[in-house]
Amino acid sequence: GFGILGSAVVALIVLAAFKSAIISDVSYVDYCWRIVLGCGAIPGIAALYFRLTIPETPRYTMDVEHDVNKATSDVANYLQKTDTTDENDGPGNHVGVPKASWSDFTSYFGKWKNGKVLLGTSMSWFALDIAFYGIGLNNGIILSAIGYADTHDADYNLRAYNSLKNMALGNIIITIMGTVPGYWVTVAFVDKWGRKPIQIMGFVVLTVIFIVMGAAFNPLKEHSIPAFIVLFTLLQVF
Description:
Sugar_transporter_CS, MFS_trans_sf, Phosphate transporter, 0% strand, Growth Hormone, Chain: A, membrane, transmembrane
């Protein structure tokens, strides 16, 4: 949630920095999106650094490296809050655990009691990705469709700048009102309400809101932009 908010803030800052350049020559927008995209790599690089330097988990050491001694040592070191590496560590005790095969996979998930869990989880995620990313990646298009990002400046360059600025502001508003609260409500209540109830509730509410917004898109757009914004924000919450 904070990442989505950060991306909109970065876009607004970059646009503000290039305002005079864009107004004089709209092709400077090209620099803006390249800078915004490049800034998005910074958190990824930081995460990659920490991932490459963090000790492997005992589960990985056991299941992948099959090193029982190292896994045991890692657990003991972690519990003692000491370094997970020891210069006196030997080559380790590697055990010959057989690797899982496709036949293991099919025999396990071929049973309905196991397969339905995998199917339900993966298809729920698939359906959510279509809705969430389909909407989230096209916020600018939706804001334009409802007229929020449109401007009527006579100068083409100024119109382009103001349109992009409004899109960035609109994304910030939507994220602050919908996406971030939605994430943190779940963080606060997921253990009390349960993961299944929260997921089912989210899907039910999203289904209802999508049907309403799809069926009434043109009337909402023509007669009640505030109602559209409220419904769209609720989409982000749920």
